[in-house]
Write a structure and sequence with these properties.
Number of helices: 3
Order of helices and strands: HEEEHEEHEEEEEE
Strand content: 35-45%
Number of domains: 3
Number of strands: 11
Structural class: alpha+beta
Shape: extended
Distance between the termini: 124 Å
Radius of gyration: 35 Å
Largest sheet: 4 strands, antiparallel
């Protein structure tokens, strides 16, 4: 081998070695950025929510007889007005293989406000300890600003009759939109059941179902409780 060929061979080896070293170096420095992206994607997401806990409206089943609704008592309570919800998807994925009941979200109460709870009861089915629905009385509550009832004095000291006299209660059954089949514009194929399966008489027939919105009575009664204002003179 001539000297010139030896020199060319040495140069070629050096160029290849330099290229491999540069590739290895750039590949190593790229790994941390990939890890950082995965860490950003897997970071738990948080969401802060402002809540208005004061409501004078409640819903109960429409099967309830409104005449059975009665006032029970007043109570001062502390209600959440601001919460922070954390969603940890990565932790949830790991836990779902070890636990049967896994929730990916946790809620933390950040702020609370004082309120007055007005509790009512009504005759209706309740779930027993055995899981059966039995006749009984169920309850609902509505919540007011303390200043709305400040004229009545300490609400915890009022008896049932005194507490009930502070409010006016009305019930209504609103209508809701429900999607139903438009029979006048729908087409259904004739057939019958064979071995428990619906079989069309004409295999080439295709059902054509058209839906429409229809206003129907809500399955719930809306109960509205208002503070009774003194009669003006």
């Amino acid at each position: 081998m001539t000297n010139s060929k030896i020199i060319l061979l040495v140069v070629a080896v050096a160029v290849v070695a330099f290229g491999l070293g540069y590739f290895a170096k750039t590949s190593t420095t790229a790994s941390p950025s990939t890890s950082e992206v995965q860490g950003t994607i897997g970071k738990p997401a948080t969401e802060t929510t402002e809540i208005n806990p004061f409501t004078n409206v409640a819903t109960i089943p429409a099967t309830v007889d409104p005449s059975t609704i009665r006032f029970e008592k007043l109570k001062t309570v502390s209600l959440a007005s601001k919460t922070k919800t954390t969603t940890d998807t990565e932790n949830c994925k790991e836990r779902q293989f070890r636990e049967s009941d896994v929730t990916c979200q946790s809620v933390q109460v950040l702020e609370k406000v004082n309120a007055v709870e007005a509790r009512y009861s009504y005759a209706g089915p309740v779930v027993s300890s055995s899981g059966e629905a039995i006749p009984g009385r169920d309850e609902f509550s509505v919540y007011f600003h303390p200043e709305d009832l400040s004229a009545a004095g300490p609400v915890n000291k009022l008896n049932r009759e005194q507490g009930a006299s502070l409010f006016e209660m009305t019930t209504s059954r609103p209508t809701v939109d429900e999607k139903v089949i438009d029979k006048a514009h729908s087409q259904f194929c004739d057939g019958n059941y064979v071995d428990g399966n619906w079989t069309r008489k004409d295999p080439n027939c295709q059902d054509h179902v058209v839906y429409m919105n229809q206003s129907v009575a809500s399955p719930y009664l809306m109960v509205q409780v208002n503070v009774r204002r003194p009669a003006s003179h």
